[in-house]
Amino acid sequence: VTSGIASLPVNVATIDTDVAVIGSGGAGLMCVLHVAQRAPDLDVTLVSKGQVGRSGCTLMVQGGYNAVLDPRDSFALHFGDTLEGGVFLNDQELAWTLVGDAPRVIRELETRVGCFFDRRADGRLHQKPFAGQSFDRTVHRGDLTGIEIMGRLRDQLFRIRPRELGDVRALDLLLDGHGGVAGATLLDVRTGAVAVLRARVVVVATGGSATMYRIAAPAREKTGDGVAMCYRAGLELRDMEMLQFHPTGLLAGPSRLTGAVLEEGLRGAGAHLYNAAGQRYMARHDPRRMERATRDVVARASYLEIQAGRGTPAGGVLLDVSHLGAGEVEARFPGMVARCRQIGRDLAREPVEVSPTAHYQMGGVIIDQDCQTAVPGLLVAGEDAGGTHGANRLGGNGVAESTVFGARAGDRAALLARERERGTPDPARVAESVARALAPLGRGDGPGPFALTRALQDLMWDDVGLVRGRAGLLRARDRLVELSEQVARVSVAGPPQANYAWQEALDLASQLTVARTMVESALVREESRGAHYRADFPERDDERWLRYVVARRGAAGEPEIDLRAVALTRARPRAGSEQSAAGGRA
Amino acid sequence: LANPAALAPAPPLAPAPGTVRVTVARSDPAAQTTFEVERFEPMMVLDLLLAIQRERDPTLAFRFSCRVAMCGTCTLRLNGQAVLACQTRVQPDWAAVRLDPLGGLPVVRDLVVDMAPFFDEWARVTPYFAPVEGLDEPAAIRPDDPERRLIDPHLDCITCGACYSSCGIAGYRRDFLGPAALNRALVLIADHRDALGRERLAAVGGVAGVDRCHYIYGCSAVCPKDLDPAGAIRRLRRWRVGARPARRTGGRA
């Protein structure tokens, strides 16, 4: 730590490192592991807005991890499922990389990190059925897999001993004079102090932004910070209109529990979904796959049922797994049974009310297979990156993506750190970043952040949700501009130390940045594909729309949109396989 | 195709009108400490805190992340007992509750604690897996293997610190490894895939180790994941004076 930078409103310490990893979920920790493996002499700094290894969504993984391990399964099948699930919007090279690396990373998690996943009777890894997959390939530990993966990964940090900056948020990426990455500005959530982190390589792995919806599944940290930072640094985003809703989020009234996912394995095991009239409505929406259709199809079907007045009084549908037998449900899904019992429901013996819940952001920063971006030295891994999943992610491909690409980012960062100098950030950019972060604390008269978050969640749910249309998206565009103006005036009381209202104000700024790219991308895509359903353009249109939407920050700060053809490098949609993206009619 | 069970309407979640009086420990002596919070159903202790922060006093500081008992960061003391705020339901007969930060740990602000002492102890048992030579494939181990039957009930620790806070020794004498770390040590020592069992046994058998435990069972009583750290300590004590667990042979894939 060296002296402060002149001309700043406050004293700003500088920390020098070789590799800075922003985010401590599955991608961030795998990245640290791989940097240490490849180049143990490098100085690694791990920056985490929440507690290190105890925040983000990898630890919330319930279902598990897709990997081709059985001789009867194949890369071609997993790849085909991933493209079908993604409705051929995927970056096929990223999807192929995911499929190809997943078995190796599962082995690494078991044999190097120490995870122990569930076994079959013969002692080999158990793989369970998930929706949208042609083979039972999901590795898991019970129905709370993330605890085992993240606990063991976090424990490896006690061997590696990177510099851990827990409760420290990254504010902005800093570039050097040549357009390469130079580091990031930081804010210590506990103390309120700011700092400059200078690094040869920066890896962004903060996770997605789905918390900006009224009903949402992710951990609180998931506010799109990484994507917003990259966007402000000039990077291109793709597929930002693709936001996944998981079909089975718990409904628990105003409790924060609402939106928590009941895992995919329940549908994989044969759970039924009923509307309030007792109809298994998937028969009308996807008669072949029924409840085991992909998340986009099931979530939208549930939403349409609810919108058509066939939902429960609380605005949900009913998930019923009781026909499997209470003993079976309790043995296979103890975590889900406990989660329902907590709100007085018995998953093993009765239907439970669920709703679609905002879950996962398919879109993100454009990367190559080694997580490299258009900014030299800046890598992006996990949910912050776009392309792997196309228009819809398969259950079980999420934690696979985090760990596969986190590992690749670590491998690449170790190489790059040898080649790159540590650049000098522009002091004016540092000052601007710090001033913007500190501003809400100094103001006395603006709106508070919590009501603004709620307003954002309502507008995203209503107008940028499971069913979209031009009128609603235009309304959302206007309301986001208004909200941005309010957030620019936001004011928080209290001290700088552990001030979560202040943190919420900074989260909001990230969320609004991401939300605007989502609305603009959704307006442009005048068709329906995967998670993106336009009521005014309900058909999938491969003639015009095997293209992906790219959003980048324009000169005036507004999103600029570009369209690019999907490179069908390995597979193309079968002629005649095209079906209505809605999969049927309500 | 109607399912009779689905047709029966779910009973409404019982309304619980009225309020609950919440008293929260605050770092700023001038800050408000007592709030009347409107009830709803179902309501968790975390919801009480969120209601206060969102509607009454935005400066109230507390941690949470996942809100589904997986991250272990919302631990606090409810009327003196360590619980996860996210999975503890506000009961209909509660008129008043008191919320304090975890014990035995430095307070950052209000209910936010610094977990460093907890993880310092955790680090001392060498908590990371170190594979035995030749472990290149997931070991073939049947689900009913005695080794897994021993280990599995001790997994799923979320390092929430509830046991640490509730241990009469760990929070008092700073040199006790504490229940969570010892539970983790058991998981690794019993695992034939791991190579560092001997070192760990030395650590847990040392002056800061299992002998410090007085079997008050506070740890096992409060564990929100129903783990039994006291049982782990008992077993480690036996292993230390006797033999390490028998290493199985030929069980690998």
* Number of helical elements of chain A: 16
Percent of residues in beta strands of chain B:
5-15%
Largest sheet of chain B: 5 strands, mixed
Largest sheet of chain A: 5 strands, parallel
Give average pLDDT of chain B, whole number. Answer: 89
Distance between termini of chain A?
61 Å
Class derived from helix and strand content of chain B: alpha+beta
- How widely separated are the two ends of chain B? 47 Å
> Secondary-structure element order of chain B, as H and E?
HEEHEEEEEHHHHHHH
Dominant shape of chain B: elongated
Mean pLDDT of chain A: 94
Biggest sheet, spatial arrangement of strands of chain A: 7-3-2-11-18
- Radius of gyration of chain B, in angstroms, nearest whole number: 22 Å
Rg of chain A from C-alpha positions?
23 Å
Number of strand elements of chain B: 7
Structure description:
The complex is a heterodimer of chains A (586) and B (253). Chain A is of the alpha/beta class. Helices cover 36% and strands 16% of the residues of chain A. In chain A, strand 8 (168-175) and strand 9 form a beta hairpin. In chain A, helix 2 (75-85) packs across helix 3 (92-113), helix 13 (449-463) runs antiparallel to helix 14 (470-487) and helix 13 (449-463) packs parallel to helix 15 (500-524). The longest helix of chain A is centred in the C-terminal third of the chain and has 25 residues, at 500-524. The relative contact order of chain A is 0.17. Chain B has 253 residues and is an alpha+beta fold. In chain B, a hairpin with a 2-residue loop joins strand 3 and strand 4 (81-84). In chain B, helix 6 (179-189) packs antiparallel against helix 7 (197-205). The longest helix of chain B is centred in the C-terminal third of the chain and has 13 residues, at 229-241. The N and C termini of chain B lie far apart (47 Å). Chains A and B meet through helix 3 and helix 4 of A and helix 1 and helix 2 of B.
